[in-house]
Design brief:
The strands form four sheets. The chain has an eight-stranded mixed β-sheet, with helices on both faces. Strands 13-12-11-14 form a four-stranded mixed β-sheet, with no helix packed on it. About 30% of the residues lie in helices and about 30% in strands. The two termini are about 35 Å apart. By secondary structure, it is α/β, with parallel strands linked by helices. The longest helix has 20 residues. Helix 3 packs across helix 9 and helix 7 crosses helix 9. It folds into two domains: about 290 residues, Zn peptidases (Aminopeptidase, 3-Layer(aba) Sandwich); about 80 residues, Urease, subunit C, domain 1. Strand 16 and strand 17 form a beta hairpin.
C-alpha cells in the first residue's frame, strides 16, 4: 500500500476545485453529476420533500458492497466535497489503489441525501425533520428512499458521513477533534457485536493513518444508543456502520483542510476493505481513541473587567446563510470567573487592552458581539483567524 504521504501528495490533483467552502447545495453538484454520468452509473432514487432529486452513483465491479451517503444533515458539507475528491481519485486509471478498490468493491454513493436542507443550510429537511432521527418512523420521503436503498444494496459496510461542531475535543484536552469516528451501538447495552468489531477495526486503520499527520486530534464519538438514529438502526440490523465526523482544524472554518483528512480517511478505509478479508482482529485499538469531549469555544477572553470583577467570557459562532454564503455570527456563550474550556482564539485582558462591544452595549449571555478590539486590532468580521 502507498504511504499516507503518497496519498496526500496526490491529493491536489484529485481535489474537486469547483466546489469550495461550507455552502454546497444541489445546484453546485448537478454539473458534477452530469460529468460523472459518462463514467459511472447514475440514477435518480426519488425526490426530496421539496421535489429535488436524490441521486445515486454506482461504481466498481467487486463483490464487497459499500454504501456511502453525505449531507443527511444539509449544513454538513465537508464530506460531500471529500466524496467528489474521492470520485476524481477513483476515476484515475493509472492509480493502482483506486483500481484495486473498484476491482474488489462496488460502491453505492449518495452525495446529497438531504438536498432541501442543503439549499436552506439547515440540519433538518424541508419539513424541519432531522433525517438522522427518522430511521424508525420513516416519516419523510428522504428516509423512505434511503431505507429502500439499504434493503436493495444490503451493504457489507455503511459509511455515514457527517460534520461536527467546533466545540468538540479529542478527549478532555486542548486538542480539537479534527476528525471523529464512531462504531454505533446496536442495542441499549452497547454490546460490542461482531459487526461493530469490524467497524472498529476499520476505524483503527484510519486512525493510524491520521495520527501521522494530525496527532492526538482524532476523537471517538459517544456510542449512546438511539434506535431512531440511522447508524444505530443499521447496526441493530447487523450492518457494519461507520460514522465519520468532519471537525475543526485550526483556522479552518471553511473546512477545506479538514476536507483533506476526510479524503485520506475514505481512501484508507476503502483500500483496507478492498485488500483484506474483514474480521475483528485488532478491533480493540479503537478504544485507544479518546472519546470526544466538549472542551472548546470559538473565542475566550480571559480576565475581562466586568462589573469591577475579572471574568472569563466565552463566545460561540452561529452559522447563518446570507446571500449564498455562510457567515459566522459571534454570541456570548458564558460569563464566569474562570472558564475551564479552551478557545480556538484566546485573548487575555491581563496582558492586552481588550474592548468587547455588543448590540446592547451590555455583556449578557446570548448577546451578539459587534466587535472585539485587542490593542490596536479591531475584529468586526468573524471568524477571527489567528
Amino acid at each position: 500500500m502507498s504511504s499516507t504521504i503518497d496519498i496526500l501528495e496526490q491529493y491536489t490533483s484529485y481535489k474537486e476545485n469547483s466546489i469550495q467552502d461550507r455552502y454546497i447545495n444541489y445546484t453546485d453538484i448537478k454539473p458534477l453529476l452530469k460529468k460523472w454520468s459518462v463514467t459511472f452509473n447514475i440514477k435518480e432514487l426519488g425526490v426530496s420533500e421539496n421535489n429535488l432529486p436524490i441521486e445515486l452513483l454506482t461504481l466498481g465491479t467487486g463483490s464487497k458492497k459499500l454504501l456511502l451517503w453525505s449531507q443527511m444533515h444539509g449544513n454538513e458539507s465537508t464530506t460531500t466535497r471529500a466524496v467528489f475528491d474521492l470520485l476524481n481519485f477513483l476515476a484515475d486509471p493509472l492509480n493502482t489503489i483506486a483500481q484495486n478498490i473498484l476491482k474488489e468493491c462496488t460502491l453505492y454513493i449518495v452525495p446529497m441525501l438531504n438536498p432541501d436542507g442543503s439549499t436552506l443550510y439547515t440540519r433538518a429537511n424541508f419539513n424541519e425533520v432531522d433525517l438522522n432521527r427518522d430511521a424508525q418512523d420513516l416519516s419523510q420521503a428522504e428516509s423512505i428512499i434511503f431505507k429502500k436503498l439499504v434493503d436493495e444494496v444490503d451493504p457489507l459496510v455503511a459509511f455515514n458521513l457527517h460534520g461536527q461542531r467546533t466545540i468538540f475535543s479529542a478527549g478532555q484536552t486542548n486538542k480539537s477533534a479534527i476528525v471523529s469516528f464512531l462504531s454505533p451501538s446496536s442495542n441499549a447495552e452497547r454490546t460490542v457485536t461482531e459487526s461493530r468489531k469490524i467497524g472498529m477495526r476499520i476505524i483503527s486503520e484510519m486512525n493510524t493513518a491520521l495520527q501521522q499527520h494530525i496527532p492526538n486530534c482524532v476523537g471517538r464519538y459517544d456510542d449512546g444508543f438511539n434506535i431512531n438514529c440511522t447508524g444505530d438502526t443499521l447496526e441493530n440490523n447487523n450492518i457494519t456502520t461507520i460514522l465519520f465526523e468532519a471537525g475543526h482544524h485550526p483556522n479552518d472554518y471553511k473546512r477545506e483542510v479538514t476536507r483533506k483528512w476526510m479524503y485520506l480517511s475514505l481512501v484508507t478505509s476503502l483500500n483496507f476493505i478492498a485488500s483484506n478479508v474483514l474480521n475483528s482482529e485488532g478491533y480493540d485499538a479503537y478504544f485507544d481513541i479518546p472519546e470526544n469531549g466538549k472542551c472548546f469555544k470559538d473565542i475566550i477572553i480571559r480576565n475581562y473587567n466586568y462589573k469591577n470583577n475579572k471574568v472569563d467570557i466565552s463566545i460561540q459562532y452561529k452559522e447563518q446563510l446570507q446571500e449564498n454564503e455562510v457567515v459566522f455570527l459571534p454570541y456570548i456563550a458564558d460569563i464566569q470567573s474562570n472558564i475551564s474550556e479552551y478557545g480556538h482564539y484566546e485573548a487575555n485582558a491581563a496582558e492586552d487592552t481588550i474592548t468587547i462591544l455588543t448590540t446592547t452595549e451590555k455583556l449578557k449571555i446570548d448577546n451578539k458581539i459587534v466587535s472585539i478590539q485587542v490593542n490596536d486590532k479591531e475584529f468586526s468580521v468573524f471568524p477571527i483567524i489567528y
